[in-house]
Design brief:
The complex is a heterodimer of chains A (about 325) and B (about 290).
Chain A: E1 4-13, E2 16-26, E3 31-35, H1 42-50, E4 57-62, E5 65-66, E6 77-80, H2 92-102, H3 107-120, H4 136-148, E7 154-158, H5 166-183, E8 186-191, H6 194-200, E9 203-208, E10 211-216, H7 218-223, H8 228-233, E11 240-243, E12 254-259, E13 264-267, E14 271-280, E15 284-291, E16 296-302, E17 313-318, E18 324-327
Parallel strand pairs in A: 3-8, 3-9, 6-7, 7-8
Antiparallel strand pairs in A: 1-2, 1-4, 4-5, 9-10, 11-12, 12-18, 13-17, 14-15, 14-17, 15-16
Helix pairs in contact in A: 2-3, 2-4
Chain B: H1 2-37, E1 39-43, E2 46-49, H2 52-59, H3 61-95, H4 98-109, H5 116-127, H6 132-139, H7 153-177, H8 181-189, H9 194-222, H10 226-232, H11 239-249, H12 253-277, H13 282-287
Antiparallel strand pairs in B: 1-2
Classes of the chains: A alpha+beta (about 325), B mainly alpha (about 290).
The structure holds adenosine-5'-triphosphate and magnesium ion.
Adenosine-5'-triphosphate binds near residues 41 and 42 of chain A.
């Protein structure tokens, strides 16, 4: 177990810089999720921690020691890959034992540690099989088993669930979280799925085009997004952005007013809007409305509330405490 | 069922040209050759059936020495081609992308833009006593008399490896291409050295490509006629040379056929042993 610190990390491929300086201190045992849209540099950042990619400038520290120039195997980390990277010609047992075998661990201890991990992951019955004879979820578990048996200080996950179907993803998400709690190993987890990030993270790093826009606990980030990008990326359906002049008390420089769909309510008076279509999702209903100035907004309602028909005109109201304002750079103001 | 009947008919119609080709060009000549090889000449236009032609082969050391020499020279050429071809294929498949990859791949094809004869003459121009290498060595002061580099085993080997390289590199690039980079990265992550990754991850994955490349190169070398004769000269002692002289020079079709059959047996045996040793099945190799 160890702390991980990134200090002013940048990364360039040739002349193009793709990571523009990231600073974060990760506590021992913390579960950090790196989340952001495709191509924002999540994998690159993770791979620099893993030692699979060189660091252009800045410092990576694991357990307080600078590891920039260390080989992956000398960093005391274990990585779980998106496609699992299991060896097709080895059995599940050999896959899990491979790292220990290379490290020269005695056979008896290897057997013990693999058995322990297999029990933890419910893989006891599959140890003799080849990876191609397993389901996606089982392969995913083997990949985690291979990381666990080495008892590393840090786990690195690069979109480990993205090859699974939706239902399995929810189940494995829970398993990963419980496993990490039980083992208490510091973890860095990359995903582009904000629901995964919200549910797994102790703290999350929201990345946007090679920068960390915001680092914080999921609910803190949800309630207090620091940039327009974060506000729009975290939360589903996304936050509504209205022109700032719709509020009389907007701070100077504000161009946009952000408000979450659940904070918009229907009222007798207030901003008029026309219902374009409704989505009844069972537990909740989403109303998509157009304001007089052409802005599209989403209203989230309880399913039991009587909701207006498509084409009807409604009036929207919101609490001043739930608004946030952004300036023309997309920064909070 | 009319539907399956029709699809079966289509299947046979599609299969027909293949079968025709197999029967007329492969099976028939071989059956004919086998029958010829069993004929013993006892007088003018008088024949008996028996294994006398095969006995001739085993009683004449020159014949079976040439036979063995052809076999081990071909094996050596195959191993050499593999050793040179593997790093090239690895470089093309794993360390280059996009246009560089295509360009390098095409460069492997360049030798095949000229005929085998011209290609071999090219080597002769380079290697002969008055050739390019000899002149360069003399000019550099490394040799004080013309050096003959033709007409020895090394020259034959150079020619064989050069001719076969493409047939090794193509299947290797194909299999190595299909090796996901993350498997190699996972190896480093798990603490394996570069050599361990090569031995335990890359080579097992590339095995079908290695085996199919080796089979093709081995058969091409064994059956090569031009390269050993031209680069090895009179002493090349290549088995195909013996077959040629039986058929063409001596009009001894019976012995020539027997030799042909022995060569077929030899290549099949060695390929079989190779497959067994590498624990690959022919089906899996050919599916690559
Ligand atoms: N080897 C490379 N050479 C050049 N550019 C690269 C290389 N690897 C990544 N990039 C670039 O760096 C940027 C970040 O890539 P990265 O793979 O880290 O994105 P990501 O956030 O993981 O995206 P995704 O969610 O699609 O996996 C991209 O613009 C990508 O094109
Ligand atoms: Mg990625």
């Amino acid at each position: 177990m160890a702390t991980v610190s990134l200090k002013g990390i940048t990364k360039s491929f040739g002349k193009t810089e793709v990571i523009h300086g990231i600073d974060v201190d990760i506590r021992d045992g913390e579960f950090i999720v790196i989340v952001g849209p495709s191509g924002c540099g999540k994998s690159t950042l993770l791979r620099m921690v893993a030692g699979l990619e060189t660091v252009t400038s800045g410092e990576v520290q694991i357990g307080g020691a600078r590891v920039n120039d260390r080989e992956p195997m000398d960093r005391d980390i274990a990585m779980v890959f998106q496609n699992y990277a299991l060896y097709p010609h080895m059995s599940v047992y050999d896959n899990m034992a491979y790292g220990l075998k290379i490290a020269g661990t005695p056979k008896a201890e290897i057997a013990e540690r693999v058995a322990e991990a297999a029990t933890l992951l419910q893989l006891e019955d599959y140890l003799k099989r080849r990876p191609r004879e397993l389901s996606g979820g089982q392969r995913q578990r083997v990949a985690m088993g291979r990381a666990i048996v080495r008892k590393p200080s840090v786990f690195l996950f690069d979109e480990p669930l993205s090859n699974l179907d939706a239902k399995l993803r929810v189940q494995m998400r829970l398993e990963i979280k419980q496993l990490q709690r039980r083992l208490g190993v510091t973890s860095l987890y990359v995903t582009h799925d904000q629901v995964e990030a919200m549910t797994l993270a102790d703290r999350m790093i929201v990345m946007n085009a090679g920068r960390a826009d915001q680092i914080g606990a999921p609910l803190e980030v949800y309630a207090n997004p620091q940039t327009e990008f974060v506000a729009g990326f975290i939360g589903s359906p996304p936050m509504n952005f209205l022109p700032a002049d719709m509020a009389h008390d907007a701070p100077p420089g504000a161009v946009k007013l952000g408000i979450r769909p659940e904070h918009l309510t229907l009222a007798q008076t207030g901003t008029a809007a026309k219902v374009i279509y409704t989505e009844a999702l069972g537990a909740e209903t989403l109303l998509h409305v157009d304001l007089a100035n052409g802005t599209r907004a989403t209203v989230r309602q309880d399913a039991i509330a009587p909701h207006p028909k498509e084409g009807e005109t409604v009036h929207l109201a919101w609490d001043a405490g739930n608004r946030i304002f952004f300036d023309s750079e997309g920064q909070r103001c | 069922m009319p539907v399956t009947d029709r699809s079966r008919l289509t299947f046979y119609l599609l299969l027909a040209p293949l079968l025709l080709w197999l029967v007329t060009l492969i099976i028939l000549p071989h059956v004919g050759m086998f029958l010829v090889s069993l004929r013993e000449k006892v007088g003018v236009r008088e024949y008996e059936t028996g294994f006398a032609n095969y006995a001739v082969f085993f009683n004449e050391p020159l014949y079976w020495n040439t036979f063995a020499r052809t076999a081990y020279m071909s094996i050596a050429a195959t191993v050499l081609t593999l050793l040179i071809g593997f790093p090239i294929a690895y470089y093309i498949a794993k360390l280059t992308r996009g246009r560089t990859k295509t360009t390098l791949f095409l460069m492997c094809l360049i030798p095949f833009w000229v005929s085998e004869l011209v290609r071999t003459f090219g080597w002769m121009i380079l290697l002969r006593e008055t050739g390019v290498f000899s002149n360069v060595l003399q000019w550099a002061g490394l040799a004080d008399a013309p050096v003959e580099m033709l007409y020895n085993d090394a020259a034959i080997m150079v020619g064989l490896v050069y001719t076969s390289m493409l047939f090794m590199v193509v299947p290797l690039v194909t299999t190595l291409d299909s090796l996901d980079d993350s498997l190699i990265e996972a190896g480093y992550d798990l603490g394996a050295s570069g050599f361990a990754i090569l031995r335990e991850i890359v080579i097992p994955h590339a095995m079908p490509g290695i085996v199919s490349g080796c089979i093709v190169v081995f058969m091409l070398s064994l059956g090569n006629y031009l390269t050993p004769i031209l680069l090895g000269g009179k002493d090349s002692l290549w088995f195909t040379g013996l077959i040629y002289s039986q058929f063409i020079t001596r009009f001894n079709w019976e012995l020539g056929s027997a030799f042909g059959f022995l060569l077929l047996g030899l290549s099949s045996t060695i390929v079989f042993i190779g497959l067994k040793l590498s624990r690959q099945s022919l089906g899996r190799t050919m599916a690559q």
